[in-house]
Amino acid sequence: MMNIQESFIPDPGLGFAYTQAPQEDSSLQRLKEIVQQYCPDEVRAERQTVLPDEELHLEELEAGFKTLLAGGNPFPEIPMIEPLGIPDSSGNPENPESQEPHTPSTNIEDGFGIGIPETQKLQDLHYEEVDTLNSEQIKKDFPVLQQKVNGHDLVWLDNGATTQKPNQVIDKISDYYRNYNSNIHRGAHTLAARATDAYEEAREKVQRFINAASSEEIIFVRGTTEGINLVAQTYGRQYLTPGDEVIVSTLDHHANIVPWQQVCHEKGCELKAIPTDQNGDLILSEFERQITPRTRFVSVGHVNNTFGTINDVKRIIDIAHGHNVPVLIDGAQSIAHTPVDVQALGADFFVFSGHKIYGPNGIGVVYGRKAILDKMQPWQGGGNMIKDVTIERTEYNEPPARFEAGTPNVADAIGLGAALDYVSHLGIRNIEAHEHKLTEYAREQLGQIKGLTLIGNPKNRVSVVSFVLDGIPVPETGTLLDKEGIAVRAGHHCAQPALRALGYEMSVRPTFALYNTREDVDKLVIAVRKIIGGR
Ligand SMILES: Cc1ncc(COP(=O)(O)O)c(C=O)c1O
């Protein structure tokens, strides 16, 4: 018999049965009993949150659980999503040979036939260290990964720079251009309506993915860099005055340093940076000392791109809010690797790029708390961001349109929506657990190589390993790895203050994603040994 904790697959059927609630108290009581009997603790804890006004089919629910426990599919009309990576009595999770062959689905609505699908309802379940993804199968969704580079199967370990795109995203963008390309919001015709609906639907997908309170808090931009510039040039220019202070962190990407430097220079403000220790962890006790009555804004990265540090942004936000200072979180490196809940964090702004989460280039997101966005002046002027224009004056639109001047990137917003669907179906917790395992495995294997120095050892980290080789320049190491078909980043990663704080100018940086396997890590380790041995 399967373990209910592992086999409680939140497919659309169970999600439906569980999230629908009874109108009558007796039904609710019965629901509680069923949940008590069959569900893991986390689900029981959530039972209070069931929606109040839908009919619940209790017999179906109970029968469904019984069938599931007996190893069957309780909802035969819904194609069962095979959790190929999960161990059961008949198959070894590490051995794809022992599983049913996987036919990649290109229809997002169908699910993907891989990993554990995850409903919004169960996103909070923590899968801890259990690696449930079958990355060998997942890889088949990514056409770019099906090629040889320099005579070797491509091993893509440059995910920190950008991630590859699954068929589901590519097809969605192609479908837009083939079938309903149109400008949005303006045209009163069928294609304009379709494009507008799809664009706004993508906005809602982003809202759900980061748990924003409203889709009006989601602004589409080109990417993280543009998003941070937008906030610096709107909120920053509006509220900073000479002598004020802005705090960033030493671990931040240049995209979260330069825009604040620029506005601080313009306004006569001081830019401070939270220091890091030699492990690559921010020293938050210093941050508590740095923040003063003149501090007007804090902007920090969620996950560092060079050591993979997961910063304690909740604590940073709490400290800043204790001084009435708003906080922007740069989520470029966290969005694809760890769950994000902007309301639970209490973030005032959260910014990320679509291309770092299997979505297209040229699309990104600024989440801004509505109360703040309402007060902010626009950045760029033009069409779409106005309510009324005369030659003398302009009445601006409400957010988010106020911050989306001109024709937006409709296709790529829709593509980003598809990417978030893809990630949600696999489950961000599952992805996090998988990547954490790979990262630790890579550190362990690389750490055994004589002449290789790992850089940084943060307490909580995700997806990134940084290293240098004795006597072999970083750029050369990158080129030699490329000869073996392995793509990594070799350079300063646009994070010079972070690397310099630990005494380095450059590093070799493999970064892991949901399609990477232990075999990919093994190939990297063999290639590094070969490079060192060849010297
Ligand atoms: C932490 C961090 N912030 C910001 C950026 C900039 O993102 P983009 O180039 O997509 O604007 C990156 C990109 O690598 C990053 O890693």
Outline of the structure:
By secondary structure, the chain is of the alpha/beta class. It contains 19 helices and 17 strands.
Description:
The chain is built from 19 helices and 17 strands. The chain is an alpha/beta fold. The strands form six sheets. Strands 4-10-9-8-7-5-6 form a seven-stranded mixed beta sheet, with helices on both faces. Strands 1-2 form a two-stranded antiparallel ribbon. The chain has a two-stranded parallel sheet with strand order 3-15. The radius of gyration is 24 Å and the shape is globular. Mean pLDDT is 84; it is low at 1-24, 45-54 and 77-128. It binds pyridoxal-5'-phosphate (PLP). Residues 223-225, 253, 255-256, 301, 305, 330, 332-333, 353 line the site of pyridoxal-5'-phosphate. Pyridoxal-5'-phosphate (PLP) is lined by residues 223-225, 253, 255-256, 301, 305, 330, 332-333, 353.
Distance between the termini: 55 Å
CATH architecture of the domain at 146-164 and 427-533: Alpha-Beta Complex
The portion of residues assigned to helices is 25-40%
Mean pLDDT: 84
What's the shape? globular
Keywords:
535 residues, alpha/beta, Aspartate Aminotransferase, domain 1, seven-stranded mixed sheet, two-stranded antiparallel sheet
Fold blueprint:
Elements: H1 4-7, H2 12-19, H3 25-38, H4 41-46, H5 58-69, H6 135-138, E1 148-149, E2 152-153, E3 155-156, H7 167-180, H8 190-210, E4 218-221, H9 224-239, E5 245-249, H10 258-267, E6 270-274, H11 284-290, E7 295-301, H12 313-322, E8 327-330, H13 342-345, E9 349-353, E10 364-368, H14 370-373, E11 386-389, E12 394-396, H15 410-426, H16 428-447, E13 452-454, E14 467-469, H17 474-483, E15 486-487, E16 489-491, H18 496-501, E17 507-509, H19 518-533
Parallel strand pairs: 3-15, 5-6, 5-7, 7-8, 8-9
Antiparallel strand pairs: 1-2, 4-10, 9-10, 11-12, 13-14, 16-17
The structure holds pyridoxal-5'-phosphate.
